[in-house]
């Protein structure tokens, strides 16, 4: 898989992550969260034309997935369906600690950072955005969903004033379109404005929506 010649694979504490550093004097941190069975290489296909001002990190999720790759929740054969808040929160807490400690170690300001995830990584993006709205600036939610268990937060409108990018395929059989629409309704109830891109694809990001994502991240 092409990951770009200017990225490096590192170990930081208990984490494995792929990093693209920035030579900008004031880089913006972008955190890339892969989906179920993905890894630290999976998200770079979306980044080829993003600003050189971004300092990007793509962590490997902490749990093994079946049959391969990694997951943001522990493997539990007895649990089916979409993971909710309780299943994903430990990884979200770990990610926030990673972001704080890594950014401090390299001197990058992460008081606010941008966050982008695909599928299960998009669910993580929604969860972290709602739990830590003062920390997350831009959110890219690609072929994802809002985890169950956030109803109490939705009522507090934690995402008021935020513009969130959401992309979904009309032929997605992994996360059906109606689940995506229901998730967008929850984001709007949380106070967010949605920049939405829908295209005739399956569980992936179309070329049109990739261009829309790039435009969103430029603003």
Could you please describe the fold and organization of this structure?
The protein has 219 residues and is of the alpha/beta class. It has a single domain (8-218), classed as Alpha/Beta hydrolase fold, catalytic domain (Rossmann fold). Helices cover 29% and strands 25% of the residues. The protein is built from 5 helices and 10 strands; from the N terminus they run E-E-E-E-E-E-H-E-H-E-H-E-H-E-H. Strands 1-2-4-3-7-8-9-10 form an 8-stranded mixed β-sheet, sandwiched between helices. The chain has a two-stranded antiparallel ribbon with strand order 5-6. The longest helix is centred in the middle third of the chain and has 22 residues, at 85-106. The two termini are 29 Å apart.
């Amino acid at each position: 898989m092409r990951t770009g010649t200017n990225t490096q694979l590192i170990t930081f504490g208990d984490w494995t992550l792929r990093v693209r550093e920035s030579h900008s004097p004031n880089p913006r941190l972008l955190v890339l969260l892969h989906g179920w069975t993905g890894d630290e290489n999976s998200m770079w296909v979306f980044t080829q034309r993003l600003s050189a001002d971004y300092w990007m990190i793509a962590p490997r999720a902490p749990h093994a997935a079946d049959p391969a790759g990694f997951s943001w929740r522990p493997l539990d054969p007895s649990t089916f369906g979409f993971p909710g808040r309780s299943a994903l929160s430990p990884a979200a807490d770990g990610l926030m600690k990673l972001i704080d400690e890594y950014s401090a170690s390299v001197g990058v300001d992460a008081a606010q950072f941008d966050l982008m995830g695909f599928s299960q990584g998009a669910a993580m993006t929604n969860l972290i955005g709602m739990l830590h709205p003062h920390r997350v600036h831009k959110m890219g939610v690609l072929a994802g969903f809002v985890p169950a268990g956030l109803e109490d937060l939705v009522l507090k409108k934690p995402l008021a004033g935020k513009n969130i990018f959401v992309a979904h395929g009309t032929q997605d059989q992994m996360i059906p379109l109606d689940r995506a629409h229901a998730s967008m309704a929850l984001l709007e109830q949380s106070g967010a404005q949605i920049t939405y891109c829908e295209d005739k694809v399956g569980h992936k990001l179309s070329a049109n929506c990739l261009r829309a994502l790039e435009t969103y991240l430029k603003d």
